[in-house]
Design a protein that fits this description.
The protein is mostly beta strands. The protein is built from 2 helices and 6 strands; from the N terminus they run βαββββαβ. Strands 1, 2, 3, 4, 5 and 6 form a 6-stranded antiparallel β-sheet that branches.
Length: 118
């Protein structure tokens, strides 16, 4: 929370998924591939996969940051200063995520060549 009289860290727990499906938040025109010529043949996969989590322990005045980072598909590590230890996805999802990092599960590329206009 932040006000002129009170400064304190918001400690409300927020659950976050390993796979985040953004389809409900993408415009209808983008997902309806039959109506938009430029998207024909391109999959409309809007899923993002968690690959990193930053955690903050402490309050607004003092604290400590740790992180979880995924290597390859299922190898997670907990990084705490000089100590790096193996971690499970359950430990990651049970952590107090401060910053979450996702990447797109399937990359889409523009399959229609753009004309060069000079």
């Amino acid at each position: 929370e932040h006000s002129s009289r009170l400064h304190k860290k918001i400690t409300t727990r927020v659950d976050f998924p390993e796979v985040l499906d953004m389809t409900p938040f993408i415009s209808h025109a983008r997902n309806n591939v039959s109506k938009k010529k430029e998207y024909q043949g391109i999959p409309s996969n809007n899923k993002y996969v968690l690959f990193g989590v930053i955690n903050h322990i402490g309050n607004l005045d003092a604290g400590h940051y740790t992180s979880y980072i995924r290597q390859h598909s299922d190898l997670w590590f907990h990084c705490n200063d000089h100590q790096i230890l193996p971690a499970s996805i359950n430990q990651v999802l049970d952590s107090e995520g401060y910053l979450l990092f996702y990447h797109k599960q399937i990359l889409e590329y523009d399959l229609i060549p753009k004309s060069n206009s000079l």
